[in-house]
Amino acid sequence: MTLRGRLTAAFLTVVLGPVLLGAFFVGSTLSAVDRGRATERLGVAAAGVRTSVDALCQQLRAAADAVALVADPAARPRAADQVVGRGLAAAVVIADPAGQTSYATPGGPPGPWQDCAADATTGTVRALAARVRLRDPAGADLGTVAAAQPVDPAFVARLAAVTGAGVTLLDDPGRITHTTEDREVRAAVLAAARQADGDRVTGTADGRYVRRVGPAPGQPLALVLSVPGERPPGLYAALVGAVVLAALLAVVAAWRLARVTTRPLVELAGAVDRVAHGDLTTRVPVRTRDEIGRLAGAFNRMTRETGSYVAALTSSRDQLRGHLTVLGDTLASTHDLQRILRVILHSAIAATGARAGAVLLVDGDGALVGQCVEGLDGRWPSGDPADPATLRVPVGAGMLGTVAATGEPLRGRWEPADTPTGEPSCETYVAVPFAAPRGAEPRGDPDRPGHPPADGDAAEPDRALGVLALYDRLGADEFDDDDLVTLRTFAGHAAVAVENVRVHEEAQRLSLTDPLTGLWNYRYLRESIRREVERANRFGRMLSVLALDLDRFKHVNDTWGHAAGDAVLVEFARRVRGEIREVDLAFRQGGEEFVVLLPETDARGATIVAERLGAVVRDQPVPVDGHAGEPVRVPVTVSIGIAVYPDHAAGGQQVLDAADDALYAAKAAGRDGYRLAQAPDPGPTQEVPVVVAAVSPPDGLPRAGAGDAAAAAQGGASSGPHPPRQTRGR
Predict the structure, then answer these.
(1) How far lies 395's CA from each of 184, 399, 409, 488, 498, in Å?
(2) Which range among 188-197, 263-272, 340-349 shows the weakest confidence by mean pLDDT?
(3) Which residues contact residue 64 at a Cβ distance below 8 angstroms, ignoring those fewer than 6 apart?
(4) Distances (CA, A) of 641 to 638, 650, 720
(5) Residues 150-164, buried b or exposed e (16+ Cβ, 10 A)?
């Protein structure tokens, strides 16, 4: 074959081959992308359906619970009507233990009703229902309360609006009950749904994709979701036309090239030009073994290796960029240290090709404790492999301890020590320490804020917060310098994450506590009084509030100075903490004013606490430094106002105001004592029948609205043995 013929044939092969492959690739890729997008849309729609049905079932269960919680059987029908009137359910049915309906709200949906707790659809579903058992205080079965909402075309239309997909509800035999599909596609969607199994997505002839959802536990409806495909119409016809047109153009070009080309290097020159423009897939056919053939072979090898290098570099770059993006998003969106460390460890393993890894932090006992691990199954020296804290290495012992103690990274092959150190076994390893960022922790004298660091502190290395370690790189090769540099980057992120979490926790603590006394501040008082009042309402308990004010505190400041006044406040706060329970809350409201919340405590218990606080303050003068530096014992007394919720107020701010008014009364009565708030003027009352044989509640705690006599009979929360002390250490 002549050189001209070889050039013509080579040109046709080079041009038509990629065109055919490209057409096949474009067609298959578009089809795969279309199916993938449809699968993703159907997955989101399925999640939306499950969420909507679950939300409806929870709403119905809450409505049934609201009726079931009514203790008076005669009041339950009224409660059922109220639930229906508020739109929480379309119908409520109350049945006796035998299943006979004792009351049903009018206008309920027709049967059958499908129970939300059922696993599968039984027959045609007209409504969804949630049932709650009725029981008396002794636990005897009194029947059931069922709340229902209709499953009608409007319900199916709402699901379709929420999910953005066509929704079809099937009955038990598989027939259509309600649907939002057009009549033209219903038969095709139903036929595809019969072929769908589980979460598998099937397609129809007209380009729609179908998926079944349910029935399943918590979602008893048999639903079919469908979305239209996004594949362009006439795709394959256009691809065939493009291939034919390309073939005609290639033939014409080859014929033209055969006539004008006399040198075989033209093809090689064209290939070199395409490579110069970035097309590394260009290949030159090697047909002879002469100099041109050897040149073409060398050219092909060069482009193939270059393409491999570029692909590897691109893949590594994209992978590292993805890990850094995920890491950055995690650092910016959460203060969950465990989650951040898991993302850092996973990203470091993926970026270096390691088989396993661990992140350890230094605890208060000077030991490295595992926070999160990956791929260490079968490598643990002892303990429970499900708990990362099992990995515990003393600082200075073993490879990990040495890295934490010296602050220098280590890598190499594992050599087991004679004495077990608790480290996991491996073949190769790389470990990098991470410390708090410079400037995050002030240096110098810890007892003198703002004192500059000493000369010797300048060269002191940063104290290690932990160690990031990877084990056994894929391919059995040792970790290299590039892996060490990459791991240093992730270790730096770990250090920033640990420091940010600690700073965040410290800021949270400082924002809610008084810096002088360590008690909770006024901001946390507002939040706590609201929370405790809600808890008292929920469980029918009492909440006592003590408003405390140090008597003649201005005289202490004027006589011995503000430093002495601060010392008195600190000592007073310490004594308050020592005289209250762990569940009680103490606050500094401002200046010499304090507040104590006593949950589940009646008036009698609150007065006992007030007497104890007054005695512990009165009987022990506070030692302070006088003006000349000589110790002085300052006598201190406290006035206390007591208010009880709900006896003295109907809300959190009101009970605080009532305690404050009682405090002013104690001040006016001569100080150094306590006063109980006056009960508000009684409103219109209604006689409520009480069972003669009423007994105390099983827990013995006072109920809201009970008087002092009832509290004494039941035993107030603070009238019994003294509870545990408040030992928060602030």
Answers:
(1) 73, 10, 14, 20, 18
(2) 263-272
(3) 89, 92, 130, 131, 132, 145, 146, 147
(4) 10, 17, 22
(5) bbeeebbeebbeebe
pLDDT in tens, 598-642: 999 999 999 999 999 999 999 989 998 877 777 888 999 999 999
Greatest mean pLDDT range, 104-108, 213-217, 524-528, 623-627: 524-528
Q: What b/e readout covers 340-371, taking b as 16+ CB neighbours within 10 angstroms?
A: bbbbbbbbbbebbebbbbbbbbbeeeebbbbb
- One-letter identity of residue 416: P
Residue 262 has pLDDT above 70, yes or no: no
Identify the pLDDT of residue 383: 54
Strand partners, 47: none
Write 658-667 long-range contacts (CB < 8 A, 24+): 658/545, 659/545, 659/546, 659/547, 659/595, 660/547, 662/547, 663/547, 663/548, 663/549, 663/639, 665/641, 666/639, 666/640, 666/641, 667/549, 667/551, 667/639
Q: How far is CA 653 from the centre of its chain?
A: 33
DSSP string over 59-88:
HHHHHHHHHHT---GGGHHHHHHHHHHTTS
User: How high is the pLDDT of residue 545?
Assistant: 96
Mean pLDDT, to the nearest integer, of 515-526? Answer: 89
Cα separation values, 180 from 188, 222, 229, Å: 14, 15, 17
What is this structure's pTM?
Answer: 0.38
Residue 339, SS3 per DSSP = helix
Q: How far does Cα 392 stand from its chain's mean position?
A: 27
* Cα distance between residue 234 and residue 231, in whole Å: 9
* C-beta of residue 541 within 8 angstroms of C-beta of residue 704: yes
Residue 116 in contact with residue 63, Cβ under 8 Å? no
What's the pLDDT at 327?
A: 67
Closest CA to 644 of 726, 546, 715: 546
Closest by Cα among 306, 373, 367 to 341: 373
pLDDT bin (cut points 50, 70, 90) of residue 6 is: low
Strands 113-115 and 127-135 turn out to be parallel
- DSSP assigned state of 415: -
The reply to whether omega before 646 is within 30° of 0 (cis) is yes
Neighbours of 308 (CB within 10 A): 11
Can you say whether residue 645 is alpha, beta or left, with left for phi > 0 and alpha for psi between -120 and 50 degrees? beta
Asked whether residue 334 carries a pLDDT value surpassing 80, the answer given is no
The alpha helices in 413-547, defined as continuous H runs, are 481-512, 522-539
Q: Is the dihedral of CA 629, 630, 631, 635 positive or negative?
A: negative
Q: Residue 488's pLDDT is what?
A: 82
Q: Provide the pLDDT confidence category of residue 381 given band limits of 50, 70 and 90.
A: low
**Type of residue found at 159:** L
- Confidence class of residue 386 from pLDDT cuts 50, 70 and 90? low
Is residue 83 within 8 Å of residue 92, measured between CB atoms? yes
Query: Which residues, 6+ apart, have CB-to-CB distance to 274 below 8 Å?
Result: 282
367-374 and 91-95: which strand pairing? unpaired
Residue bearing tokens 């006063």: 675
Task: Give me the phi and psi of 446, to 5 degrees please.
Answer: -70, -20
Between 3-68 and 76-85, two packed helices, what is the crossing angle to 10 degrees? 150
